[in-house]
Amino acid sequence: MLLPTSRLYFGNPVGRVLEHPDGFAHVIYEPGPRKLHHLQAFLTHTGQLLRSKGWNKMLGDQRLMAPFTEEESKWIVEYWLTRAEQGAEIYGAVLLPHDVFARLSLNQMMAEARAAALTYRLFDNEDNARAWLRQLP
């Protein structure tokens, strides 16, 4: 029996946004530095995918990601999280970056984002992250 596969929704130098057959956005960050406008496009398309499908869940694979810059973190907290939610709670399973500085920047940004309608859990294991997403409403 063939298992359904994820479908590419968007990609750029920041990474890939996939439509996962279990009903969530799967965002995979590439290693290396980013340009702010590439990150903005990447996350804007992620939000568009969530809204167009009526989804409220995403799996963020940040294992290879470079640390967020201060400018990126500010844009994510002040703009993307606020616009992406539009009254609906978003659940995010985040695969922790391998880079210790990327982990620190992620933790700081998430602490600043507590007011946004984002419920997230951090994972070291992709199977556990997917299992958590599947059990959510």
How would you summarize what this structure contains?
Helices cover 41% and strands 26% of the residues.
Write the layout of secondary structure elements.
Layout: E1 7-12, E2 15-20, E3 24-29, H1 36-53, E4 57-61, H2 70-85, E5 90-95, H3 100-112, E6 118-123, H4 126-134
Parallel strand pairs: 3-4, 4-5, 5-6
Antiparallel strand pairs: 1-2, 2-3
Description:
Helix 1 (36-53) runs parallel beside helix 2 and helix 2 packs across helix 3 (100-112). The longest helix has 18 residues, at 36-53. The chain has 137 residues and is an alpha/beta fold. The relative contact order is 0.16. The chain is built from four helices and six strands. The protein has a six-stranded mixed sheet with strand order 1-2-3-4-5-6, sandwiched between helices.
